[in-house]
Design brief:
The complex is a heterodimer of chains A (208) and B (191). By secondary structure, chain A is mainly α. Chain A has seven helices and three strands, in the order ααααααββαβ. Chain A is 66% helix and 6% strand. Chain A starts with a helix and ends with a strand. With 191 residues, chain B is mainly alpha-helical. Chain B contains nine helices and no strands.
Chain lengths: 208, 191
């Protein structure tokens, strides 16, 4: 530190502009303590020459630099900055509120249209319930055309969970028919329309 | 000569955008500028406000400073003009304040700027002067002579070496030791 102070003292009196003295100046600019040191050395000379004003203001340099910073960055004081930021946000919200409402309405409409369209697309690609019924009907007709034994199906209502059909294992045509129905149902329930909440119960018990 | 070269280097740095260099220039010349302005304006608070304006004007105009004159000559011209303009504008504006008696105690006048002329500042000035002169009195004679020849007479190290009959290195060492001894007493007042 003493070596640096000696360099500051020499720099104040005999700055030559060479590389060495420039390096010392760099060092001073980068170190607040060295700047204070330089300031006190300068003050000693000012006191000796009776150059000190009646009221010494040790914050003067800081005040000047703060003003310069304020001029260079006209970003105002913190309070006014917050105030203006608030005013801006209020103004922005006041202006943007109707647009925000419209944006939400448009979004809802868009989602509805998209869902409707996708539902239409699905309707095009997948059979409607009427079509399913008709397809089923074709299969059923095909199956019915095969010989189905009488009394192959026994409808029982004694069970707690609704009606059950007990299938006679000896009626393969009917089993095939019901299997076809189950396959058809599974495909349907995996589709968009199958997601619509409704109870679908399909099953059969094999009667041994 | 050294101080002029230092000013020129600092100006060059400010022109290149180095604000810390201007900080050093303000530190160096603030008291001279305030004293100059106090020849035009008696109120010390006004003096500091005008000095502040002068430094800000200097900072904004430093890009146009070509170094034809010395920096302090240029700065003094700005300070003197700022003080004169201040007086002229004050003369144009007659004091039209209407202050209630109850508010008069807290009235800060036209500017309402920072108060520089506080009793604390006055006391600080006295203490600084007393401390420095007391420390100088306590210095060994060779140190006292070296620092006096430098600070009051403005001699260069070479000239002091001739006067004192010693090498320049010795002059440098004596001046530094004198400053260091005074600084040890001064530092507690400014921290």
């Amino acid at each position: 530190m003493t070596e640096q102070q000696d360099k500051i003292s020499f720099l104040l009196d005999e700055f030559s502009g060479d590389e060495q003295s420039r390096a010392v100046l760099d060092e001073i600019e980068g170190d607040v303590n060295l700047q204070y040191n330089m300031r006190r050395y300068q003050m000693i000379g000012q006191v000796m020459r009776h150059e000190l004003p009646r009221h010494v203001n040790i914050d003067f340099t800081a005040d000047v630099m703060a003003h310069i910073n304020q001029i260079e960055n006209p970003a105002m004081t913190d309070n006014s900055r917050v105030d203006i930021a608030n005013r801006q946000s209020i103004w922005t919200w006041a202006v943007m509120k109707p647009f925000a409402g419209m944006a939400i309405a448009v979004s809802v409409a868009m989602i509805s249209i998209t869902l409707w369209q996708s539902s239409s697309v699905n309707s095009n690609s997948e059979p409607t319930s009427d079509q399913i019924v008709s397809i089923d009907q074709q299969k059923i007709d095909r199956l019915v055309s095969q010989s189905v034994q009488a009394n192959a199906v026994v409808v029982s209502s004694s069970l707690h969970n609704g009606m059950r059909w007990k299938i006679d294992n000896n009626a393969p045509a009917l089993q095939q028919k019901l299997n076809a129905y189950l396959v058809n149902h599974t495909e349907y329930s995996n589709s968009m329309q199958g997601l619509i909440p409704q109870a679908r119960v399909a099953g059969f018990d094999a009667q041994n | 000569m050294g101080t002029n070269l230092l000013d020129a280097e600092l100006v060059k740095r400010v022109q290149a955008g180095d604000k810390a260099a201007f900080d050093i220039l303000v530190q160096k010349y603030q008291h001279k500028v305030v004293n100059l302005i106090s020849r035009f304006v008696s109120d010390q608070t006004e003096c500091y406000d005008i000095a502040q304006d002068a430094f800000i004007k200097a900072y904004r105009a430093i890009g146009n400073f070509r170094g034809d004159s010395q920096f302090y000559t240029w700065l003094y011209r700005i300070a003197a003009n700022t003080a004169k303009n201040h007086l002229a504008s004050r003369a144009r504006k007659s004091p039209t304040y209407s202050v209630d008696v109850e508010d008069a105690e807290h009235f800060e006048g036209e500017s309402g700027l920072k108060e520089y002329t506080t009793p604390e500042n006055l006391l600080l000035t006295d203490e600084i002067e007393k401390t420095v002169f007391k420390a100088i009195e306590a210095l060994p004679e060779d140190l006292k002579s070296a620092i006096t020849l430098r600070e009051i007479e403005g001699l260069s190290y070479e000239e002091i070496a001739e006067v004192m009959g010693c090498p320049i290195g010795t002059v440098r060492s004596r001046i530094f030791r004198a400053r260091d001894a005074i600084d040890k007493e001064l530092r507690p007042l400014l921290e």
